[in-house]
Amino acid sequence: MTDDALPPPLPTPPRQTAPGGLQQLRTFLASDNLVARLAVLGFLTLVLTIPLNMIGGVIADRLTFEAEATKSVSEAWGGEQTFVGPMIVVPYRRTYLGALTLLPEKLTIDGHIQPQQRRRGLFSVNVYTATLDVTAEFQTSALRELLADQREAEWSAARLEIGVSDTRSIDGDGVEIDGQKVDWTSISGGSLSSLKAAVAAATLSDREVVQVRFRIAIAGSGKLALVPLGRRTEATLDAPWPSPSFFGRLPLSQTVATGGFSAKWATSDLGRPYGQLWDTLNVRNDPSAKTVLGSAFGVTLLTPVDAYRETDRAIKYGIMFIGLTFAASLLFELATGTRPHAAQYGLIGLSLCVFYLLLLSISEQIGFALAYLASAAAVVIQATIYSRALQGRTAPALAFGTILAGLFGGLYGLLQLEDVALLTGSVVLFAVLSIAMWLTRNLHRQQLA
Question: What are the coiled-coil residue ranges (predicted)?
Fold first, then answer.
């Protein structure tokens, strides 16, 4: 009888081990070392910049669409407006055909701006209607003296002229010239003039002073400028608009409040690069349109920060916000003894990124403040429920949700600050870094055996 010998067992294959450096890295990341956890969270924070940048691209697209809507409405309603006038123009002949332009000795403009809103799709565009009450006083003696110098005046063609940048949106019911009502007629192709009214020859040849009074309405958007043609120009502008920006010569006095603004200017001809009487045949006394318009002053109705710009500002704090949330999560991890997986941290970070997308989309419908409240509440509730599922305890989850709600509240407060937003954000970041340095003060580098 022969025994059937069993075959010898096969040798166990050697266990594949990772290279020394890679194995040490895996051990380091899998350990409970705080530095390792911080490294993982830092890496996740950098990765989350990708979805933040994608959402930032969506905001940029929305801002582009908004600019196109604003341009479209402005072209139909009226763009930035500059008011020039009034001026008395008298054609004459002196070998060639020329014209003399007389500016007023005293010019008073009382302007009232009424803002309005026009919608184009999802976008609201701010426009305005300005009503200008204009009073001017002309001294005609200088005009007659210059015309007597071998110039043959065409008194029948003498006229009063005014100009605006966009002639499609101008309206006036005529002008009083020394008490006589005269209708406006349009001028085509003028660089400074848009409307004209005939001036009686006897008015200019017999009287020393000519009084002019009229009211004109101008529709525009963005900016309203006034050119100081008077030897002495006084102007006032007011509007129920809380965000004016004055340009050119600054007003002598101004009042800006949440209910609107009021500003007053007073200028003289000494601050202008042109005189009171222009002659088209004398280059030295005939300023260019650019020179005249360059002396204008006025106000720009700044658009308050809208939902898109608020969201764009908010997303600039995205990395800091995600980092603070991860820091709060890490503190709860150390306090409760739980250890979430890196993927779970990643999901919390993605939830914070989706917050900005919710904020953008909801704010288009109900405004930024309510959209912020709704989006923040949704993310806080979601994160609290998720934290409760991870830790199995309600109290720490509620505490985490409370801290997250506080972070959202702090971010909203930061967004409402305009002049000191950068300072406040820098101080908060410095304080957080100081706290992190204090909490990690007892960490020591592992000594090799």
Answer: none
Highest mean pLDDT among 178-182, 234-238, 312-316, 415-419: 234-238
Which of 361-366's residues contact partners 24+ apart within 8 Å by CB, and which partners?
363/307, 363/308, 363/310, 363/311, 364/62, 364/122, 364/307
How many other C-beta atoms can be found within 10 angstroms of the C-beta atom of residue 59? 21
CA 72 to mean position of chain CA atoms = 18
Nearest to 149 by CA among 199, 105, 198, 98: 98
Question: H or E stretch including 208?
Answer: none
Three-state DSSP at 368 gives helix
> C-alpha distances in angstroms, 122 versus 64, 191, 222, 440?
13, 36, 20, 49
Query: Which residues have C-beta within 8 Å of that of residue 233, sequence separation ≥ 6?
Result: 107, 108, 109, 226, 265, 266, 267, 268
pLDDT tens digits, residue range 384-411?
888 888 777 788 778 888 888 888 888 8
> What is the distance between the alpha carbons of residues 179 and 419, in angstroms, rounded to a whole number?
51
Closest by CA position to 360, among listed 71, 57, 120: 57
Q: What would the pLDDT profile of 62-86 be if each residue is shown by its tens digit?
A: 888 888 888 888 888 888 899 998 9
DSSP class per residue in 104-173: -SEEEEEEEEEEEEEEETTEEEEEEEEEEEEEEEEE-HHHHHHHTTT-EE-GGG-EEEEE-S-GGGEEEE
Among residues 142, 159, 145, 150, which one has the least CA distance to residue 203? Answer: 159
What's the pLDDT tens digit per position in 190-241?
678 889 998 887 677 778 889 999 999 999 988 999 999 999 999 999 999 9
Contact 154, 176 (CB under 8 A): no
Place of tokens 């380091």: 28
**DSSP code at position 285:** G
Q: Count H helices, E strands: the chain?
A: 12, 18
pLDDT of residue 449: 42
Going from the N-terminus, what domains does the chain have, and what CATH number goes with each? 33-62+307-439 (no CATH), 79-301 (2.60.40)
CA distance 230 to 382: 66
